[in-house]
Amino acid sequence: MSTLANDVPADAAGARPTSARVGRPARRPGRWTSIGGRPPSTGIVVRTTVLTAGALAVLAPVVWALLSSFKSPDELARRPPTPFPAHPSFGNYAQALTSFDFGRYFLNSVLVTAGATALTLAINAMAAYALAKYNFRGRDALFVVTLATIMIPLQVIFLPVYQMVSSLGLVNSLWGMIIPPAATPTGVFLLRQYMLTLPDETIEAARIDGAGEFAIFWRIVLPLCRPALAVVAIFSVIWRWNDFLWPLIVAQDESVYTLPVALARFSSQLVIPFNLVLAMSVLSIAPVVLIFLALQRQIVSGIAQTGLK
């Protein structure tokens, strides 16, 4: 009678698999074992536990606001509060959209975010290109000073910036919210670090072929910097959409309110039901969350390619 090992065909070298020789199937790694079959180290377990706890702590308020936006006012006032709505309904969202001028505030936020992001990409890309590919006296010192402005609190420069905006007649306008935060040292840093990786020979070859400086920047440098530009654009969208303090200072009329400002103004009024405020809050954060979930891979790859640890 033949054994199991004799029934299994041999490979090219004449050797049979180990599992066939011992007469049992190959052992697969368990769920909590590594490829070599060893359990994960204590450091990996601790790191995973800490990161999971931190993620749950960050997501807990968002989940609570999302679940509470489907509750009635009486259910929100119940003590102790219940985690899940007893009778979930989309009526809060419908009432929030009809009670407030949500469409105008949403459009203002879109215009401010889109305009500021476009200016941020244009200004930061040109500044980064000059700091990365041009040799001039004081270039490194200028870059250090640009990075040093990250440490300056925004509240310190609000007064001079507001005076400049007021002298230009941009107070209580969307342009007053778009122009001041356009240039960011973080964007200049990310784009410069990426442009340093571009070969200088490509730019020199374009100059030899007769291309102008703007043509080189527009047709060669910018297409090669798409990953870094995508990262800066995503960061700018998140920052401008959630910006509250500067639009609060500039906006003096409800017609130019952005969503964060309108939400803060309406939530401070006692006549506004809290369930409608929660519904409006969920609607205001939904676009940013969706953008982040859709483009998180580009964010990670772009940051990795810029060399930012």
Characterization of the model:
The protein is mainly alpha-helical and 309 residues long. It has 2 domains: 42-90, no CATH class; 95-306, MetI-like (MetI-like fold, Orthogonal Bundle). It is built from 16 helices and no strands.
How would you describe this structure in keywords?
16 helices; 0% strand; MetI-like fold; 67% helix; ABC transmembrane type-1 domain-containing protein; globular; 2 domains; 309 residues; mainly alpha; MetI-like_sf
Layout of strands and helices, then pairs:
Blueprint: H1 4-7, H2 18-22, H3 42-68, H4 73-76, H5 91-99, H6 102-133, H7 139-148, H8 154-167, H9 174-178, H10 185-195, H11 200-208, H12 213-224, H13 226-242, H14 245-250, H15 259-267, H16 274-306
Helix pairs in contact: 3-16, 5-16, 6-10, 6-13, 7-10, 10-13, 11-12, 13-16, 15-16
Strand-residue proportion:
under 5%
CATH architectural label of the largest domain: Orthogonal Bundle
Rg from Cα: 28 Å
Strand-pairing-aware structural class? mainly alpha
Roughly what percent helix? 55-70%
Task: Give the CATH class of the largest domain.
Answer: Mainly Alpha
Keywords: Cell membrane, Membrane, Transmembrane, Transmembrane helix, Transport
Membrane topology: Multi-pass membrane protein
Protein name: ABC transmembrane type-1 domain-containing protein
Subcellular location: Cell membrane
